[in-house]
Amino acid sequence: MQETPTAPRPTTLPPSNRPAADPHLPRLALIGNPNSGKTSLFNQLTGLNQKVGNFPGVTVDRKTGMAQLGGQRRAEIIDLPGTYSLYPKSLDEQVIADLLYNPDAADYPDFVVVTVDASNLRRSLLLFSQLADLGLPAILALNMTDLAAERGIQIDLPALERELGVPVVPMNARKGVGVAALRIVMAERLAAPPALRFWEPEGDLLPLVRQIRYYFNLHNDYLALHYAHQFRGLRFLSDDDRAYLLELTEKYKFDSTARQAEETIGRYARINELLLEVVTVTRTEQREPASNKIDKVLTHRVFGYLIFLGILFLLFQAIFAWAQYPMDLIDQGVANFNELLQNNFSGPLVRLLTEGVIAGLGGVLIFIPQIALLFAFLAVLEETGYMARVTFLMDKLMRPFGLSGKSVVPLISGLACAVPAIMGARTIESWKDRMLTIFVTPLMSCSARIPVYTVLVALVVPDESWLGIFNMRGLVLMGLYLLGLVSALVSAFALKKILKARERSYFIMEFPVYRWPRWKNVGLTIVEKVKAFIFQAGKVIVAISVLLWVLASYGPGNRQAQAEAQVQQQAAAQRWPAAETERQVASARLETSYAGTFGHVIEPVIRPLGFDWKVGIALLTSFAAREVFVGTMSTIYSVGQDADLGTVQQKLANEKDINGQPFFTPVRALSLLVFYVFAMQCMSTLAVTYRETKSWRWPLGQLVYMTGLAYAASLLVWQVWG
Amino acid sequence: MAFLRRSPRTVAPVPTSSRRTANDLRVGETATVCCLKDPEMALKLLEMGCIPGTQVRLAGRAPLGDPLMLVLGDEEYTLSLRVSEATTIQLKA
Ligand SMILES: Nc1nc2c(ncn2[C@@H]2O[C@H](COP(=O)(O)OP(=O)(O)O)[C@@H](O)[C@H]2O)c(=O)[nH]1
User: Fold this and answer.
1) Are residues A226 and A332 in the same domain?
2) Residue A472 lies in a domain
3) Mutate to test the pocket of ligand 1, among A117, A142, A171, A174 (most ligand atoms within 8 A of CB)
4) Contact by Cβ (8 Å): A294, A511
5) A 568-597 residues with CB < 8 A to B
6) Is A506 in Cβ contact with B80 (below 8 Å)?
7) Looking at the domain assignment, is residue B6 inside a domain?
8) What gap in Å lies between CA B40 and CA A508, rounded to an integer?
9) Residue where a domain stops, chosen among A235, A256, A286
10) Same structural domain for residues A103 and A226?
11) How many angstroms does the Cα of residue A146 sit away from the middle of ligand 1?
12) Residue A695 gets which letter from DSSP?
C-alpha cells in the first residue's frame, strides 16, 4: 500500500469551485470502532490543541480539537466515543446518535472521518456502512495498514474508493504515516456523500419509514428508520415527537431488536460482496501471534495472578513512595509562598488569601503528583492492552458483589485517591456496574487517611511484635485497610439488590493485541486528567476551604474578643512566655469561633461515640478533606502549626479527661479510627462523583450512607468496649 | 428466536436446546457459528463480528473458568465474554 494522497475523483467538485474563505470553520466528527486508532489519529491531527468538555446532559467527555490543515486552513474536530455500530449499547454511545441524527444541532458536523481497521475490514466497515447509508459526507481513514500488510491482506485502494465513492486514505496513525495525506484531503474538502448504498429499509418497513420521514422532513429513509429504533433515547426530540413515534411504531408492530439483527446481517452480506472485489489475502506462514503467547503467561492460573499482584505492588510503590517527593515539594512551595506573603503583608484579606484560598489551593495541588502517576500507570496498562486481561482475570471474583472485572482498577486506584479512581470508572460501560463502583470506591482507604491512621495507631498501639514476626502497628493498619475493602464489597452487594438497571449489562469486549505504549498518548492522558481534576474538583475544594477558614476564624458577637482578653489576663498573671500565650490565644479563639461553637453544638451527638467538642471540630473540618485532621488536632490541642507528628501525638497523649485519666484510650482511638475508615469526608470526592454521575443523588447518597455507617460503627465500638 | 425465523439465512433446523454452544468447546477447538440464541445479545455479537458462518476457536478460559476467550474468524481477533454470553452462541454440528 502506498501513502500517496489519493487523487480527487470526478464525483467531487474541484477545490477551485469552492469559496476560498469559508464563512465558518469546517467541523468534522471522528468516529470508529474501539481500538481502531481513533485516539491516535485525533492526537496526530490536533497535538496538544484539544479541549475536554461534556456533551450536554451526559457525563461523556466531549473532546474537541483544532486541526491545522496547512496554510491558514483549520478544522474543528469532535472525537466521538468508540463504537461498533450506530445503535447505541451504552450511554456513552448515545451521544453519537444525538449528534448525527439532528441536522439542526449546533455542532452538527460537515463531514465525518471514519477510522477503519484495515486488518479487520469486515467488522470495521459495518459502522462505515451505516454512516454511508445516512448519507453523511465521509472520508475513510484506512488505519493499521502495517498490520494488514503483515497479515498478507492486500486492499485494492482505487477499487475500494470507486466502490464506496469516498476518499480512502491509507495510514498508520501510530507512526503518523498518511496523516499529511489526510490533512490535504480534509483541507480540499473532498469528503463526499458515499455513492454506495449498503442496505436500505424496504418492504413492510417502508410505510412506517416514509411516514416518519415526511413528518420530520428528513432527507433519507435510513435516518427515518433510526428515529423509529431510537426515539426513546434521542434527546433533541420533544415529548410530542416521542409520543407520535411511539404510536406509529406500535401501530406497525415495529420489533426493534429483530429489525436490527436483520439489518446487520444484510449489511455483512453486502460487505462480504464488496470485500471479495477489493481484498486479496495471501496467507503468510501461519505462526501463532505473539499476543497469544503472552496471554498464555499473563492469564495463567498462577502466574497471571502473581504478575497482577506484582504490578499492583509497583503501583503502590509509585503512589506512596515516589509521589512523596514532588508532594513534599509542592507542600513546601505553598508554605513558603504563604510565609512570604504573611511576612510582607498583613490584615484580614491577606489571612483570607493565605489561610483560606492558598491553603485550599495547596490542598488541590498536592494531589497532582499522585493523580499524574496513577493515570500514567493506568494509561500504560491500558495502552499495552494489559487492562483487558486484568478485567478477564478478576471478573468471576467480583461478580458475587454486583461488580464486574472492570471495577477492579477503580477500586485499586481508590487506595491512592478516590478522585482519579472514580474518574477511572468511565471504562465500565454498564450503567449499574459503573454506579456501584463509583459509590463504593471511596470506602477503600485512600492515602489521605494515612496521616490519621498513623497518628492514632501510634498513640494507642504499642510498637511490639506479635508472635515475634508481625509488628502490631502494622497489623492494625492492615486491619483498617481490610475493613475498608470488605465494607466496599459488602456495600456493593447490598446496593446491587436495590438498584434497578436501566440497561442490560454486557461483559463482552475485544481483547486488544499487546502493543508497546505510545508515550505521547500517555502524556496527553496525564495532562487531560490533571486539568480536569484541577478545574472541576479544585473549584469546590477552594470554596469550601475558604468557608471553613471563615468559620474557624470568626465567631458570633464579641465572644472571641472576650475569650482572648481572658487568656491575655491569665498570661499576664502567670507570666507565660510569648509563644505559649499566642497558642493559648489561638486555642481560645478557635473554641469561641463559629466552628468551635458548632463543635459544642454537635457534642451531644458525638458523645455516644466517645468524642468531645474538640474532636468534633476536627471531624467538622475533616469533612472538607481528611488530611486537615492532623492540622486541626494540632491547632485545637494548641500545638504550634509547624509541629511534626511527634508533638501532636504527645499532646494527644497528654490530653486528660475529667477524671484526670488519658483521654485517648485505645477504645476511644479505635472508635475514631473506625469513623475515619467509613466516613465520607472529602469534598473532592463528592464533587467528582457529581461530575461523573451528573446527579446530586449519588454524592448525597455517599455522604449519608458512609457517614451513617461511620457513626454506627463508632457507636458500636464505644458502647460495647468503651 | 422470533427474529431468526424471519431471516432465512439463520433458520435453526434443530431444536435449539440440544445444540452445542461456544461454551462447550474444548480449549483449542474450532467450530462454526450456527446461530445466536438471545436476540439482544445477538445484536452485540453481530456488531462485534460474530456472524453465523464464522469460525470460532476457544483460546482459553480465565483461571476460574469464566470468562472465556474466543478467537473469531480468519482475521484472528479475540473476544472476551462471559459463560452466560458464550452459551447464546450455538454451533453447527
Ligand atoms: N500497528 C499499528 N498500531 C496502531 C495504529 N494506529 C493505532 N495503533 C495502536 O492501536 C492501539 C489503539 O489505538 P487508539 O488510538 O487508542 O484507538 P481507539 O481506541 O480507537 O482510540 C494503540 O496502542 C495504538 O498505538 C496503526 O496504524 N498501526
Assistant:
1) no
2) yes
3) A174
4) no
5) none
6) no
7) no
8) 13
9) A286
10) yes
11) 11
12) S
Q: Rounded to 5 degrees, what are φ and ψ at B31? A: -150, 175
CA distance B64 to chain A (A): 7
Indicate the residue of B40, B46, B81 with minimum beta-carbon distance to A507.
Answer: B81
Residues A196 and A274 in one domain: yes
Whether residues A618 and A570 share a domain: the answer is: yes
Contacts by A456-459, CB closer than 8 A, 24 or more apart: A456/A664, A456/A669, A456/A672, A456/A673, A457/A669, A457/A673, A458/A645, A458/A649, A459/A649, A459/A652, A459/A653, A459/A664, A459/A669
Residue A436 lies in a domain: yes
Q: Is the pTM of this model over 0.90?
A: no
Band of pLDDT at residue A631, cut at 50, 70 and 90:
low
Angle (CA) A247 A249 A255, round 5°:
145
Confidence at residue A15, expressed as pLDDT on a 0 to 100 scale: 41
The set of cell numbers assigned to A16 is: 477551485
Q: Indicate the number of domains in chain B.
A: 1
- A281 and A318 belong to one structural domain: no
Q: For chain A, what is the domain count?
A: 3
Position A548 pLDDT exceeds 80: no
B22 contacts in chain A (CB < 8 Å): none
ipTM of the complex: 0.79
pLDDT in tens, A128-147: 999 999 989 999 999 999 98
Mean of pLDDT values over A145-150: 89
- Chain A residues closer than 8 Å to B59 by CB: 292, 295
Nearest-CA residue for ligand 1 atom 21 is: A39
Q: Do A87 and B43 touch (CB under 8 A)?
A: yes
Residues with CB under 6 A from ligand 1: A 32, 34-40, 82, 143-144, 146-147, 172-174, 383, 515, 518
Q: In a 10 Å sphere around its CB, with 0-12 CB exposed, 13-18 middle and 19+ buried, how is residue A451 labelled?
A: middle
Q: What's the domain range around A608?
A: 533-721
Q: Which residues of A touch B76 (CB under 8 A)?
A: 151, 289
Provide the pLDDT for residue B75: 58
A586 and A493 inside one domain: no
A312 touches chain B (CB under 8 A): no
In angstroms, the CA A448 to CA A332 distance is: 17
CATH code of B44's domain: 2.30.30.90
Please indicate, yes or no, whether residues A242 and A163 belong to a single structural domain of this protein.
yes
Listed residues A256, A286, A316: the one ending a domain: A286
- Give the one of A151, A393, A511 whose C-beta lies nearest to B79's C-beta: A511
Contacts of A89 in chain B (CB under 8 A): 43-44
Calpha distance A88→A232 (Å, rounded): 12
User: B18 to chain A nearest CA, in Å?
Assistant: 23
Give A346-368 pLDDT, tens digit per residue.
Answer: 777 887 777 777 777 776 777 78
To the nearest whole Å, the CA of A319 is away from the closest chain B CA by: 29
The answer to the question of residue A458 being in a domain is yes
Tell me whether strands A111-117 and A138-143 are parallel, antiparallel or unpaired: parallel
Predicted confidence at residue A167, as pLDDT, reads 93
**C-alpha of A91 from chain center:** 15
